[in-house]
Amino acid sequence: MAKRPIYYDTETTGVKPGKDRIIEIAAYDPVQDRKFCMFTNPECPIPPESTAITQITDEMVQDAPLIGPTLTAFAEFCSDPDIVLVAHNNDAFDKIFLQAEFERAKLPMPEWIFLDTLKWSRKYRFDLPRHSLQVLREVYGIEANQAHRALDDVLVLHQIFSKMTGDLSWETILNLMGNTPQTLRMPFGKHAGKALSEIPKTYVAWLAGSGAFEKKENAVLRENFEKLGLLE
User: Fold this and answer.
1) Is 148 among the catalytic positions?
2) Which of 108, 170, 176, 214 reaches 20 to 30 Å from 56, CA-CA?
3) What is the pLDDT of residues 72-100, one digit of tens each?
4) Which domain holds residue 57?
């Protein structure tokens, strides 16, 4: 089955996985239009510097579930085997915190596929001086939100990444992050579904002549045809 995304975000007591704790998890499933948002009791005081960033106080989490039930609920929300968990700075932060908290709760972590939109932005929007979520929000003209609250950031990220990737399939997006253009598939047209390496050079030239590669959403496709030597 086709991969489909769930965008998610975590708010924490600090920046050190294993030492600091998750205090909020939020997620958005754009395919089924479902939202998830839960506080979790970190079983420790929230440092003032964390509250200053997240606006989450000890009083807001004191009656919240502990991390075990929160992770169980999150895993149920993301239970489809074809899910891709998408977050900004995923590989260096959110995914690492999830792994640490599943271990602390003595729960098996599902074998999710993860995608880091910060890495995507750095790879394919190298024209930008910075790649924070708020910078990308401004670049793509997304309405301002309550930054550093999990659900607000998740909804903004969905809008941003949808604009960044256009009509690319999730299989193509994942392959692009793996930097393997030979395994990519044509996302549209009469050769849709074929490996890019199998697309006739005459058809690629026709696409170029028709202006298809001038569209922002086809920039990544153009780049990979160039890598394969099918586009001069």
Assistant:
1) yes
2) 108
3) 999 999 998 889 999 999 999 999 999 99
4) 4-165
